[in-house]
């Protein structure tokens, strides 16, 4: 099991790193300036979040736009035991027509504790 990632106390709870990066990543598809913000946020997060023991924080940051090579599957060790193999890897959805950016959504209205996962269609 992966250890919890420590966050410095100076980071406000509302700006939790993963949530902040995800929000900026979603916006980045709309403008080059947003990609710049994601790049800066990623750099800053590397300073306040401990990497996994086998992690490498010296890898290149994002370029001027997101490429397929920027995406990586979530390591299986970071997912709960027994989850389906498609969870943590949205590669098939991004390659689909039309493109599906995520297999996870929240209900509307958001009850703040339910996530819905949609399995990719079998080939």
Give a topology summary:
Elements: H1 17-28, H2 32-48, H3 91-95, E1 104-105, E2 116-117
Antiparallel strand pairs: 1-2
Question: What series of H and E elements makes up the topology?
Answer: HHHEE
Q: Portion of residues in helices?
A: 25-40%
Mean pLDDT: 74
* Apparent shape: globular
The quaternary structure here is single chain
Per DSSP, what share of the residues sits in E-state strands of 2 or more residues? under 5%
Head-to-tail CA distance between termini: 32 Å
Total strands: the figure is 2
Number of domains: 2
Count of DSSP helices? 3
Rg, rounded, reads 16 Å
Give the low-confidence spans. Answer: 1-15
Largest sheet: 2 strands, antiparallel
Strand order of the largest sheet: 1-2
Structural class: mainly alpha
What does this structure look like?
This protein is mostly helical. It has 2 domains: 1-70, no CATH class; 74-123, no CATH class. It contains 3 helices and 2 strands, in the order H-H-H-E-E. Helix 1 (17-28) packs antiparallel against helix 2 (32-48). The termini are far apart. 2% of the residues are buried. Mean pLDDT is 74; it is low at 1-15.
Give the key terms.
two-stranded antiparallel sheet; disordered N terminus; globular; 3 helices; mainly alpha; 123 residues
